[in-house]
Amino acid sequence: MSERQDGLTLPGTSRRHFLRMLGAGAATAALAPALASCTGQPSYGDKAHPYFSGYFFSGKEYSRFNIQENRVDLGYPKLISEGWPGLWPDGIDAATPWTNGKAYFFKGSEWIRWDLASNKIDPGFPKPIGPDWHGIWPDGFNAVMLWIGGRAYFFKDNEYIRYDLGRESADEGYPKPIAGNWPGVFSSGLNGATIWTEGNAYFFKGPKYVKFDVATLKNVGGEKSIESGWPGIFPKGIDAAVLWPQGKA
Predict the structure, then answer these.
(1) Which segments of 9-158 are extended strands (E)?
(2) What is the rounded distance in angstroms from the CA atom of residue 45 to the CA atom of residue 168?
């Protein structure tokens, strides 16, 4: 892939800056502003970072993944209704942290804003996607992932949209096909996507996942089973995955 190919190298962001932000051994700097208020830590540089967990949702249940120990914590899965009061108890479609001390959850045509500091839903939610997320599919989507450079990516069926956090709107020229822009990633039907603490991104579809190296902008190792790479995570597939500061139930 060329340095300037659409979808992965952001406007005004050089390859050197990209690698510095998300390269091997570097955590997702894009997440630091969103998570610092909860962790109290200024940076997140280790592969198995003690201030993060991963949350995986499937149907009415969710599991907390211990990144340091590479396993699901004891006592999981749990019901969403037990651990995430106010979220849709029958499941979600997508979730992501944001750079404003919030996290966002999506289901169908609605979204919920979660306050990281107070660890609860903000008043007045859920709300419809259409009026608040300009240029994003108003009837819902499959996956969302925060990226660097003030961008996020939304995925639906075989397409994706690049979203500008500053303008609070989709960039011009989208949606575009996943195929040809995200090499080695499932070209349609994603169930979940998340950026991770070691600077990789992960994409999930059914019982499979792929690891995407953001330094080389390539798939690493091909498709693998969730069961083999994520011990204890729902082996038949997930609905959403999200990186989170530790401390959530």
Answers:
(1) 52-58, 61-66, 71-72, 78-79, 94-97, 102-107, 110-115, 120-121, 127-128, 143-146, 151-156
(2) 28
What is Dmax (Cα atoms) for the chain? 46
H-run or E-run covering 18 = helix 15-22
The more confident residue out of 69 and 125 is: 125
Would you call 100 helix, strand, or coil by DSSP? coil
25's CB contacts (< 8 A; 6+ apart) are 45, 46, 47, 198, 199
Other beta carbons less than 10 A from residue 130's beta carbon: 14
Structure tokens at 147: 């990226």
Look over the chain and give the mean of its residue pLDDT values, rounded to a whole number. Answer: 81
Q: What is the dihedral of CA 10, 12, 18, 20, to 10 degrees?
A: -160
pLDDT band at 51 (very low <50, low <70, confident <90, very high): low
pTM of the model: 0.83
The whole-angstrom separation of Cα 240 and Cα 191 is: 6
Contact (CB, 8 A) for 101 and 114: no
Q: Once rounded to an integer, what is the mean pLDDT over residues 2-24?
A: 35
Q: pLDDT digit string (tens) for 101-142? A: 889 999 999 999 999 888 899 999 999 999 999 999 999 999
Those residues with Cβ within 8 angstroms of residue 23's Cβ, 6 or more apart along the chain or in another chain: 199, 214, 215
The token pair at 40 is 């109290």
